[in-house]
Amino acid sequence: MRKTAGVIGGGAWGTALAQVCARAGLETTLWAREADVVASVNASHENTSFLPGVALDPSIRATGDFADLAASDLVLAVAPAQHLRSALAAFAPHARDGLPILLCAKGIEQGSLKLMTEVLAETIPQAAPAVLSGPSFAGEVARGLPTAVTLACPEEDCARDLAELIATPTFRPYFATDMIGAEAGGAVKNVLAIACGIVEGRGLGRSAHAALITRGFSELTRLAVALGGEAETVAGLCGLGDLVLTCSSPQSRNMSVGLALGGGRTLAQALDGKLSVAEGVASAPAVRALAAKLGVDTPICEAVAAVLAGEIDLDAAIGALLSRPLRAER
């Protein structure tokens, strides 16, 4: 029998992953909150709102009814991190015991300071959790350009099975068992991408950009380990790989926000007109609060959170980072 996949979230990334599933031979249903997205995908095989210009596999069916995902063999949860709880809670009545749910949102929930696996455990405890994370721009994935990601699941056999289920000639999941490390890498890198955008927008040079990525990776690693993840995991695609991508191109929604801030725009101006969510803006205060709770030193993430909150201006934040006491690199 042909396997079926359901995708929760009709944004650019959810649409790209629906495309991946269809290319892998899965009967794919895409749930979207927006009625115009559902209509566009079904009528013209294109998500004109979030992924315009990309021809989608005609077999992808869009819906606004969670009941249409009930028969899925696999569900990919791709709603933005701050909206994932409500989306999962709405889908929960339709989720059978043991349903594999692949978490594809990157962030830390504000208020609760919880990772997405914890949100899933509270909303659909009967599900079998897994995490997908790695360096991937939605447009490139949707167009079939080569991409490699991390797929983490507590049991290696499960991770291998899921990886084989969604793999295509141009979409290559490497499997792992460390879900916490995979989640932490994806959440923190978005905050660091805003910082890298600020460096670029302020014209601070490539040397500063490289230093920020490297020291930011140290912060990411410390926080991941404090949460119970493994340093080896975040040294791979879901940590270092994703960090390099999102901190190196204005295609990154988070870096583009930083570029605007570095160029003198306000946060409201930086976000104006953006349909897709820049997860780092919402995750920054949560990352700062979680690091403080765990006693982890994350000066770059703290500076980004303070700038976004209007607690400090850019020049003062940059000056504070550069005037920190000298210390050993490791």
Q: In words, what does this structure look like?
A:
By secondary structure, the chain is α/β, with parallel strands linked by helices. 49% of the residues lie in helices and 12% in strands. The chain contains 15 helices and eight strands. The longest helix has 23 residues. The protein is globular, with a radius of gyration of 19 Å. The N and C termini lie far apart (53 Å). The model has no long low-confidence stretch (mean pLDDT 96).
Percent range for helical residues?
Answer: 40-55%
Q: How many strands?
A: 8
Shape: globular
The DSSP helix count reads: 15
Q: Could you report the average pLDDT, rounded to the nearest whole number?
A: 96
From the alpha carbons, calculate the radius of gyration and give it in angstroms: 19 Å
How would you describe the oligomerization state of the chains in this entry? single chain
Instruction: Pick out the low-confidence regions.
Output: none
Structural class: alpha/beta
- The portion of residues forming beta strands comes to 5-15%
Query: Could you state the order of secondary-structure elements as H and E?
Result: EHEHEEHEHEHEHEHHHHHHHHH
From the N-terminal CA to the C-terminal CA, the straight-line distance is 53 Å
Task: For the largest sheet, list the strands in their spatial order.
Answer: 3-2-1-4-5-6-7-8
Mind summarizing the main beta sheet?
8 strands, mixed
